[in-house]
Task: inverse folding
C-alpha cells in the first residue's frame, strides 16, 4: 500500500509498504481524509525523533475490530489525541494525555494516517457523528487542542484575549476563544489569513499595528516561534496568562528565550502555561453543532500519492489547510 513516511531522516512516499498487522486490542482503519497540520510538518522536519508513517489528524472507516468488540466495525472514526495505556500511575490518576506509555499516531511510537490503512488501539477510536463530514472530522485533533487551550485559564468579567499567530491552529483557536465571554482578537502577519477572520466576523490586527502595552489578560501563542512567545510576554498584563500552544517550530530553529523576556515574566508575575492535546469528543460535538468552521480553512486537497507535494504546499506561508485524500490513493 501507499504510505508517506519518515525514515532515516528522509521523507519518502513508500509504494510497497506492507499492510498493517493488528496487535492485541488493535483495529484496522482504512483512512479516508487526513489533514496536514503544523505538528505533521514539525515531525517531517525532524523536530521529534519519530520514524514511521506520518499523519496525526485523520478520519477513516473501521475495517476490522479485535474479537468481541464488533460494535464499531464499518463505522467512521477518528482517533483520540493520545493513545494511553490505561495501566500506569498517570492513567490511574486520570491524566491519560500524560500516560507514561503513550503513543500518538504519526508523532510518538506509532504509525499515523498518511497511508491507505493504519492499525490503531480499538479503545482509542471515537465514532464520528453523521452530521460531521470527512473534511471537518479530519481537523478534530487541532480543534481539540484549541478547546484544551480555552480550558486552561479562568474567565473573570470579560477579559481581553489575544490569539497570536494566524496559521491553521491560530485561526481554529481564535474561533474557539470567540465563543467565550471575552473580547478576542487574532493577531498575525498574513493578509490572506487575516481575511479569513474578516469572513468569520472575528476581530483581527496585523502584528505591526499592535502596541506592546502589556494590557491583555490572556495571550494564546500559536506562532510556534521564540519571537512569538517573546511578543506574547510583552502583550500580556502583569499577573496575566500566556498559554503556549506550540513551540515545535521554535525548537527546530534552536532559538533561546532572551533574558529580558524571562525578566518580564518574573517581574510582571506572568503565568506561562503549556497547552497540549485536547478532548476529541468535545471537538466532534462542536463540529456537529456547527460552532466552528474548519471547511473555510481548506485551500487544497491532494491524493495521497501526491503526499510529498502536500507537505511542501502546507509549509508555505500563504497556504491554509491541505487535505490528503487517502481513500483515493490509487485513483
Ligand atoms: Zn498510561
Result:
Amino acid at each position: 500500500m501507499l504510505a508517506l513516511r519518515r525514515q532515516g531522516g528522509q521523507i519518502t512516499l513508500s509504494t510497497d509498504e506492507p499492510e498493517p498487522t493488528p496487535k492485541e486490542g488493535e483495529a484496522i482503519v482504512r483512512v479516508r481524509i487526513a489533514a496536514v497540520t503544523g505538528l505533521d510538518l514539525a515531525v517531517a522536519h525532524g523536530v521529534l525523533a519519530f520514524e514511521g508513517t506520518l499523519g496525526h489528524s485523520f478520519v477513516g472507516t473501521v475495517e476490522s475490530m479485535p474479537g468481541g468488540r464488533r460494535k464499531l466495525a464499518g463505522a467512521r472514526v477518528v482517533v483520540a489525541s493520545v493513545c494511553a495505556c490505561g495501566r500506569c500511575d498517570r492513567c490511574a490518576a486520570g491524566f491519560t494525555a500524560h500516560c507514561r506509555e503513550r503513543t500518538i499516531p504519526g508523532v510518538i511510537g506509532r504509525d499515523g494516517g498518511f497511508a491507505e490503512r493504519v492499525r490503531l488501539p480499538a479503545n482509542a477510536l471515537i465514532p464520528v457523528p453523521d452530521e460531521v463530514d470527512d473534511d471537518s472530522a479530519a481537523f478534530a485533533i487541532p480543534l481539540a487542542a484549541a478547546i484544551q487551550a480555552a480550558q486552561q485559564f479562568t474567565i473573570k468579567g470579560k477579559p481581553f484575549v489575544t490569539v497570536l499567530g494566524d496559521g491553521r491552529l491560530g485561526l481554529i483557536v481564535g474561533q474557539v476563544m470567540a465563543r467565550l465571554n471575552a473580547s478576542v482578537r487574532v493577531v498575525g502577519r498574513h493578509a490572506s489569513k487575516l481575511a479569513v477572520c474578516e469572513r468569520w466576523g472575528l476581530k483581527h490586527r496585523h502584528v505591526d499595528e499592535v502596541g506592546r502595552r502589556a494590557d491583555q489578560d490572556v495571550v494564546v501563542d500559536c506562532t510556534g516561534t521564540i519571537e512569538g512567545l517573546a511578543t506574547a510576554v510583552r502583550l500580556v498584563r502583569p499577573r496575566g496568562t500566556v498559554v503556549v500552544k506550540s513551540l515545535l517550530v521554535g525548537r527546530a530553529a534552536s532559538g533561546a528565550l532572551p533574558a529580558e523576556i524571562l525578566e518580564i515574566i518574573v517581574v510582571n508575575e506572568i503565568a506561562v502555561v503549556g497547552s497540549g492535546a485536547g478532548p476529541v469528543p468535545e471537538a466532534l460535538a462542536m463540529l456537529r453543532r456547527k460552532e466552528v468552521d474548519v471547511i473555510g480553512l481548506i485551500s487544497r486537497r491532494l491524493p495521497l500519492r501526491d503526499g510529498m507535494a502536500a507537505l511542501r504546499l502546507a509549509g508555505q506561508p500563504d497556504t491554509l489547510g491541505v487535505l490528503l485524500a487517502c481513500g483515493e490513493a490509487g485513483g
Summary: The chain has a mean pLDDT of 93. The two ends are 13 Å apart (CA to CA). The pocket of zinc ion is lined by residues 84-85, 87-88, 90-91, 99-101 (CB under 6 Å).
